[in-house]
Write a structure and sequence with these properties.
By secondary structure, this protein is mainly α. The chain folds into two domains: 5-88, P-loop containing nucleotide triphosphate hydrolases (Rossmann fold); 102-179, Helicase, Ruva Protein, domain 3, CATH 1.10.8. The protein is 46% helix and 7% strand. It has a three-stranded parallel beta sheet, covered by helices on one side. Helix 1 (19-32) links the parallel strand 1 and strand 2. The radius of gyration is 21 Å and the shape is elongated.
């Protein structure tokens, strides 16, 4: 038996004047269809609440409705360390996805690069260059973003996607992260 996946952006669950009715309707619809409810980017429910505020009211309404929801709900986030204790206590099963392994990253790179053909042809990467790429500690989303931006840039410049283009895009992302005092996400491609 298959269950329907019912994705709901977290942004739909905050700030609405009729929020309580909206959340109730979402939960009722999911229950009616025996759907798996997916709240993507659930970061809005993570950080501790303060006194007052529209956002805090939204979180309180969501938590109250969640208390009585009898279906399956997935909350996705990249910020597990900031969970509000009130929501943590309502989660019955917590699952952490580990970072991608090298072999899986290689498959992700190949998949996205296979979609990066320009009018000038397929991407030009040697097996050594692909090996360097798969060694970077990147998520599938980060790999997709790099491949997409490089594809767009090479399409405009009437070029083929190459390792040099990917290297430049990754270095640019790394420089941006450093400029804003963020933890370095990308290992340098020169190592």
């Amino acid at each position: 038996m298959f269950n329907v996946l019912f994705p709901v952006p977290a942004g739909e669950l905050i700030g609405d004047r009729c929020l309580e009715d909206h959340v109730s309707n979402i939960f009722k619809t999911a229950s009616h269809f025996n759907a798996i409810l997916l709240v993507d980017e659930a970061d809005v429910f993570l950080h501790g609440r303060s006194v007052g505020g529209v956002h805090d009211h939204s979180v309180t309404v969501f938590l109250r409705k969640l208390e009585y929801f009898e279906g399956v709900l997935f909350l996705t986030t990249n910020r597990v360390d900031e969970f509000d204790d009130a929501i943590l206590s309502r989660i019955h099963y917590k699952l952490k996805y580990e970072a991608l392994g090298r072999e899986f990253r290689r498959d992700v790179w190949r998949s996205f690069l296979s979609k990066s053909c320009t009018h000038q042809g397929s991407p030009q990467l040697s097996s050594d260059e692909l090996h360097k790429l798969e060694g970077l500690d990147l998520s599938a989303r980060e790999i997709r973003n790099l491949a997409m931006i490089v594809h767009a840039l090479t399409t405009v410049s009437k070029d083929r996607v190459s390792y040099t283009h990917l290297e430049q895009a990754a270095e640019s992302n790394e420089e941006f992260a450093h400029a804003f005092n963020r933890t370095e996400r990308l290992e340098t491609m020169y190592n």
